[in-house]
Amino acid sequence: MRMKLSTFHVVDRWFNKIAQRPSLVVTLSVLWLMLIGWIGYGWNLGNVGLVDETEPLFAEASRQMFVTGDWITPFFNGVTRFDKPALIYWCQALAYSIIGVNEWAVRVPSAIAAIAVISLAFYTVQWHLAKQDAAEQIQRPTRRYITAAITSAVMALNPEMIVWGRTGVSDMLLTGCIASALLCFFLGYASKAGSREQGAKESALLPNKWYLACYVLIAGAILTKGPVGIVLPGIIILAFLLYLGKFREVMREMRPLLGLLIIFALAVPWYALVIWRNGWNYINSFFGYHNIDRFTEVVNGHSAPWYFYFLVVLLGFAPYSVYLPAAFVRLKFWQRSQWQSQERSQQLGLFAGIWFLGVFGFFTIAVTKLPSYVLPLMPAAAILVALFWSDYFPTPSASSSRTPQKFFWFSGWANVVLFSALSVAMFQITQLLGNDQAAPNFRQTLENSGIVELGGYIWLLTAISVAFLLITRRWQGIVSVNLLGFVAFLIIVLMPAMFLMDQERQMPLREISAVLSQVRQPNEEIVMVGFKKPSVVFYSHQQINFIKLTSEAVVYIQNQINTSPKSHSLLVLAEHRNLVRIDLQPDDYENLASKGAYQLIRISLKKNATKKARYFHRTRTESSPNYLGLTHKIKNQGFC
After folding, report:
1. Parallel/antiparallel/unpaired status of strands 569-575 and 525-529
2. Residue 6: pLDDT band with limits 50, 70, 90
């Protein structure tokens, strides 16, 4: 125990010295954020190909904007794409202009959005704890900066944030805008300039800078994914203020009419232009199908039971998710009067809890369910867990040997159980994985690589370490073990597995795309049969006709043979098994490339049309009376 106290006092003195040098504090904070940002979102970001099928849809629509200069209407494969608003396309197109059309440019907007909200959360938590120290008239820089560092690390290093922060779609950009807007709201609400004690001059003119930033970020969220960009923050802020009974007071500070004017001024012009250009097609597609229908009914088969998001949070925020119940118990929602009596700056935990529940409840009610929908609650979850853990850091004013509450003990052992379950799952992962026709050899390749066993041992070692810390009552080390275990799994297992999956599943499509770009003749149509892989459109820069069923492809090819197409040939891309079903004769097509599970062939429409004409001519001739009579005469004369 003396050793732990001595170690703490050494660390505490070190942080006290650092706190006296603001420039050094800023430098170390930036270096920390750069480290976790690079591990989570920068390392190998663009070294893995685009993953079908959603990511290439965004990448190609952005490339079309970049190439054509049409910044209003998104297009994919020659067809309007009204799924999402324009901000993600603008960001990716801007990245194309800076670093070229490649995977890095596709994913950089998502990575920047993730790192930005992580950095803002670091600042917010540190500021919140600094205000708490000032109110209690005590200096605890160790607790302040370690808690802020843990918040940013937990927020950066969890499966849900990493997956979408490394994927070139709109989900992380939406989360960055919404989460940053909510953090800015809290900073504006909790700061002195945001309270009723602010100067009369500022009070009469504009809301403080944090409120203004909140409005701008909400506009960005609306331009990223539509009405949800203002509905979600609105629900959370409204619930928070109603709980505290400060709705009217804060509304006077925020200048909501001015805020709405700012939001509409930034977000509405693009919507007006795209509606002016595309009319009801856009309104029905985006507002009707992609917003109202997704909330009220199942779209694209994305249905799930009511407990779906419990599982998503458990696994998507693993391994820290097991501490969320205890973090919510810590808030003591039922003690409303106690929260109302606290200083505004001390209500961050309450705000994060309402933020989490608002997002979770909203999308649980929605009928269409996807794992990415609850991504905006992950920053709140990180804040809740970090604040919960901070209660167990030793401080000069409290003994580090205090007995933890029962729910911390139970959460710690739940942590051990989760790591043990993950270890067992890793050892059995090759049996749990289903068959993927696009990567038939992936399971065997994964098993041969040996990384599966490494993953199992990493989680097993982490489970043993957490159990040891619980038994020896070294509570402070548990968070470090969780973070180190996850980072080890990310570096040793997850990243190599991504490269293996890319090699088996996506690389053949990139190679086929390169062949397509070289062999395609003028006006020659490309048909993809039996599957839809938008990455081929992005990498080949060619429009492709997607035909889902093989039977439909057979009819389509026959129709092309019967008509007079612009080109004398047709390129067909299909899996080997689907080409067999088309039942082409060897002399009906030319094999151009075979990569992985895919084969590219060229069908000569002119040759097949000639063969068909000869066949019909021979059939018509052989069925004529003169031909039959001549054949009978020849047979009678012994020539047959």
Report:
1. parallel
2. low
Q: Which residues pair with 526 in a beta bridge?
A: 571
HEC secondary structure over 280-337: HHHHHHHHHHHHHHHHHCCCCCCCCCCCHHHHHHHHHCCCHHHHHHHHHHHHCCCCHH
Higher pLDDT, 530 or 88: 88
**172, 114 contact by CB (below 8 A):** yes
Q: Output the six-digit token pair for 36.
A: 């976790």
Q: Looking up tokens 């810590």, which residue turns up? A: 330
Q: How far apart are CA 218 and CA 263, in angstroms?
A: 7
Tokens coding 118:
């992580």
Looking from the CA of 558 toward its CB, the CA atoms found within 13 Å total 9
Residue ranges of the alpha helices (H) in 472-583? 477-489, 495-501, 507-519, 535-540, 550-562, 576-582
Q: What per-residue confidence (pLDDT) applies to 626?
A: 47
Buried b vs exposed e over 260-269: b needs ≥16 C-beta within 10 Å? eebbeebbee
115 versus 201: the higher-pLDDT residue is 115
Q: Which of 498, 387, 401 is nearest to 451 (CA)?
A: 498
CB atoms inside a 10 Å sphere around CB 120: 21
Q: How far apart are CA 500 and CA 449, in angstroms?
A: 9
Q: Which long-range contacts (CB under 8 A, 24 or more apart) does 424-428 make?
A: 424/456, 426/452, 426/453, 426/455, 426/456, 426/459, 426/493, 427/452, 427/453, 427/456
Burial 350-372 (b: 16+ CB within 10 A, else e): bbbbbbbbbbbebbbebebbbbb
Tens digits of residue pLDDT in 23-53:
888 888 999 999 999 999 999 999 999 998 8
More confident residue, 449 or 91: 91
Cα distance between residue 335 and residue 635, in whole Å: 108
Give the 3-state secondary structure of residue 546: strand
**Under 8 Å CB-to-CB from 72, ≥6 apart: which residues?**
86, 270, 273, 274, 277
Q: How far is CA 553 from the centre of its chain?
A: 34
At 169, the pLDDT band (50, 70, 90 cuts) reads very high
Q: Each residue of 59-77: b (16+ CB within 10 Å) or e? A: bbbbbbbbeeeeeebbbbb
Instruction: Say which DSSP state 559 is in.
Output: H
Each residue's pLDDT tens digit, 170-198: 999 999 999 999 999 999 999 864 444 44
Contacts of 576 (CB under 8 A, 6+ apart): 594, 597, 598, 599
**At which residue do the structure tokens 């492809």 appear?**
553
State the average pLDDT for the chain: 86
| Type of residue at 554 | V
